[in-house]
Each structure stands twice: as C-alpha cells, then as structure tokens.
From TrEMBL:
Family: Belongs to the FGGY kinase family.
UniProt keyword Transferase present: yes
Domain Carbohydrate kinase FGGY C-terminal, residue spans: 246-434
One CC-aspect GO term: cytosol
GO MF terms held by the record: D-xylulokinase activity
Organism from which the protein derives: Pedobacter endophyticus
Listed name of the protein: Carbohydrate kinase
Pfam family name, one: FGGY_N
InterPro entries: ATPase_NBD, FGGY_C_2, FGGY_N
Protein origin, superkingdom: Bacteria
UniProt xrefs under Gene3D superfamilies: 3.30.420.40
Upper taxonomic lineage: Bacteria, Pseudomonadati, Bacteroidota, Sphingobacteriia, Sphingobacteriales
Biological process per Gene Ontology, one example term: xylulose metabolic process
Amino acid sequence: MAKPVVAIFDVGKTNKKLFLIDENYEIVFERSARFVETVDEDGEACENLESLKSSVYDSLNQVLQMKEFDVKAVNFSTYGASFVYLDEHGKPLTPLYNYLKEYPEGLKRDFYSKYGGEEKVSLETASPILGSLNSGMQVFRLKKEKPEVFAKVKYALHLPQYLSYLITGKALADITSIGCHTQLWDFNKNQYHKWVTEEQLDAKFGEFTPADATLKTAFDGTTFEVGVGLHDSSAALIPYLENFNTPFVLISTGTWCISLNPFNQEPLIAEQLKQDCLCYMHFKGKPIKASRIFAGYEHEIQLKRIAAHFDRAAYLFKHLKFNPSLVLKLTNKIPENRKEQTAFSAVSAFGERDLNVFQTAEEAYHQLIIDLVKQQIYSLKLVLNEGVRRIFVDGGFGKNDIYMHLLSSSIPDIEVYASSVSQATAIGTALAINSAWNANPAPTDIIQLKYYSAIQRTL
C-alpha cells in the first residue's frame, strides 16, 4: 500500500531540495539540485528562474509516478526578499534580482523623503534600512526605473508564493514573506503600509491568505492540497512552536546568528533597529522580535587567520573541546574578558587582537569564541524579555562545545540547550499544513536537545 506523504520544496540560495515526509515526520525521499546562476541586465549574478521552474515540474512529476508514495499535499519554503514579476499570462517579466544588489542612493533618498524619513518607515515596518533586502524597495525601484515593464506586471509574488503559483495558478500573498524586513507591512496597524497603497502596489501581491491554508489542486492527473509557501526563517521556527509552550528564544546559527523571540510582542524602538533588530513573522501572523549578528561569517574569517598564523588545518578546530582552565588563564591575561559587552558592534573584538599574544592555536580559538559569545549575549539581550527560561541554539554553533559552554555560563539563570531538527525548514513547512495531509496530530518529539549546565561560571 502506498505511503501517505507531503512533498516539500526547500529552496535555498545554493541548494534546492525536494523532500517527501511521511505521517511520522520521517524523511522518506530526498532529491537535491544545484543550478548555475544566470545574470540580470546589469551583469549581476541572480537565480536561474527557468531552471528552478523546470526543476519543480520535473521533480513533482517524478514523485507522483512513484508507486510506493501517495502525495497528499505539496508546500514550499524559500529564502526571502525575492520577487518574481508576472505578466497577465503568468510569464516572468524580469530576472529574479539578487537581494544583495546595490540600491541606488538617489532613489532611496526620494523614497524616504516622500514617506516620512528612514526612522519613521523603519519603525512602522519593523525593518532596518537594508536596501534591496527590503524587498518592497525592489518593487518601488522597478516602478520608478522601468515604468514600461512595471505597467505589464499583473502580479509581484515573493518566491515561495511564485512556486505555489506554478502548481495552482493562483496568485497569493503570505504574511511570513510580506512581513519579514520588507518595509511593506505596518506592524502597528497590522496591514500594508501606507506607502504600499499610495503607490498602488497591494493589488499586485495577490490575495492575502493564511500561511496554514491549502488549495485542492489537480496536477498531471493527480489531486492534492497545495500550500501557499513560507519564508524559510519563519518555517524553521515552527517545530519549536509546536513542541514548546513555555517562552523560549531560538538562536539560529549559520552565516548569520539570529535570536528569535516569538514571545516578545513589544514594538521595536529606533535604538533597537539601529542595532540590527527586526521582526520576522510567525506563520499565524504574530510578530517575532529578532536580533542578528554576522557571527558565523566572522568565525570562518578569523578561524582561517588563526589556522594560518599557527600553521594548523582549519578543520581541526571543529572538534576542540571546552577547556575551562584555558578560559581562566585568558581571563587573567585579558581582564576585559570578565566584563560584559556594553555597546552594539557589528563585529567582535577578536579582529583587532594581535595573535602573537597567544601561545597556542587552541588558546587563540578559545579567545575568538569568548569574543563571539560576548557579542551574542549583547545581541540576545536586545530581544530577551521576562519569562524566557530557555534558550535553544541550532545550527553550526550548537555543535561547538566551547561556544555552548561559554554561552550557558554567561546566562546562568536561563537553561541553554543545543538543539537539532533534521531539516528544520522542511519539517516546519510540512507542520504548517499538517491537518491538510496527515491523519495524525503533529508529533512532539521532533527536536533533539542537549542541555549545557552553567555550574562553572567562567566569565
């Protein structure tokens, strides 16, 4: 008998994956693809939209023909801040512009002077000023720089909703994409921001639809439910929201280390926005206060510097164990190790340190993690509120023994756990529409936890 499954397309910047997940949330099939990037009209690298479209159709056709699986539903999660502009026939009118594309200063000035200034717009939309990463600014740019193209735009869909559109033919908008550092959503009024309606953009975003909604769709002779798609950062939080009721903060660590607090509903203030705080959006429509630092990226850069200085291979540091006596030695050698960081900094103190003061590579690496944890604690406290008793750390730093011990010792009143969910984004995307495809309730044992005790106060 065919096994009931949900098909999840998980589209990252580098890897594009398709997972089949069964009713017990076991991944029973996985397919991965990587595409060669193409370029936009300015010669800048961007996603190959045609390859992505073909891959979605080909992969779905493949799994629908597998006799051992019965596909009950399909859903999508992708990176954010990326718009696909469609004409009346559903054909893309432009490349999928890269969210790192430089934003013209003149246009930026025009926009903010028209709509009340950077601080006002930033506060109302819970979005730091991020140029093209504020995806609403991409739509504004297209309207002002290419009015003849914009005139043909029937729909402007964020990437998850475009993938859903490929299957359903329905143009939909979803709060996890619209509400995340886009400058499109007014968090105070819980509606599109005034500038969006003044520029007459809201009609182009499709019908606003709950993130857990599905649409019965026939595709290639098979009928199944199709989700509206989710922003990947919001999707990765869903397993935690489903498994834990008591207030927590999730520190999601990768290139960026993002502290997500779904239990902090206080509006962002200007000072927080200047310190790289923002709001993501819960798939049920509540703001998720977040702060972020570029710590994973800095870790890689500084690790290479340490490895080169001490003539060691960088990979050897991955499995270094926490050495409390070395931390004590460093605390005596570098007195500021005893103090908390008291001001926001985009980078840690380690980049300015002279590596000659360290006797060994292990000593230098412990200092790097001390500095990164200080920066992390400062960033975390920007979104921490009363009642949070647990911190979960997932991603790369959750596997770093030194980082986890130093973090738990720096916040001894809060329980600290390394957590892992295999393919958290895909699992969260499936959980969002669980009732549409799964005869069972959502499981409560998806997350593996490892507790780090703060018995030894090292800092």
